[in-house]
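Cross-check.
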Amino acid sequence: MTDQIFISGIRAVGVVGESPEDLNDPQPLEIDIVIDVNWGQARSGDYLGDTVHYAGVAEQVIAVVEQSKGSRLARIADRVADLVLSFSRTEAIEVTITKLSDASVGEGSTSAVKIHRTRADAHAVTLPMHIAVIGLGSNLGDRESFLRAAVNGLGPTIATSQVYETDPIGGPGGQGAYLNMVIEIETSLDPFALLRRCQRIEAQALRERAVKWGPRTLDIDLLFYDDSIIQTRELTIPHQELHGRRFVLAPLSEVAPDRCPEGWDDALESSGVYPLGPLSL
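Predicted model, tokenized:
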């Protein structure tokens, strides 16, 4: 027995078509998908890993569309279908991709394709993988549980530092000590999609941003993404405050020592950062 998940209005920008004009004219696209899912044991519980992670599906669909440069709409739809059919418990999918502005049809007109595929129709999908280094921190509530949720939600993990207990720096007085750690992960998400995933995991931990440098249940910082240098209002990589923070550099030195500035250990005060050992996952 299967049920259906509807995810509508996913927006992405893709290069549709193969002519020189097409390749220089990215198009706004809208993707709607209907997923036939075998809920299995998830029917009797709330464990998200037994179902389909809606936001994760949307993020990876956007990645497929944006990487399908020079393809026709039907081919992009095929790739989206192959991706979603590779997820556990997905039995079939209907994909509709709409070109939101299509001058070849007429001013103000749209064009679209719709396909239906089953698991038997699927082809293996290989997305390019990237290496990201991420800092985690918590000083409210069950700190270890919040760190554990972040590690499990961001993976697959390549390397994990031990946990450090650190004195709070800046912000209002009276804060409790932080638990901090750094992880290195492999991801198919682009840096902005990965940032959105970080923010979603923070929101699930009931993170509040009422006070700058105030206490928080979970803080997730994207420190590095491959060797990219990004400077936008939304995201700065490498993280702009990285080099002055021992509570980041100490765990970073365990995971990716080549990412630490030379002589960092001598240049910063050693007090206030205490290794506790590995996080129990």
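The chain is about 25% helix and 30% strand. Residues 54-67 form the longest helix (14 residues). Passed to J.P. for a second look.
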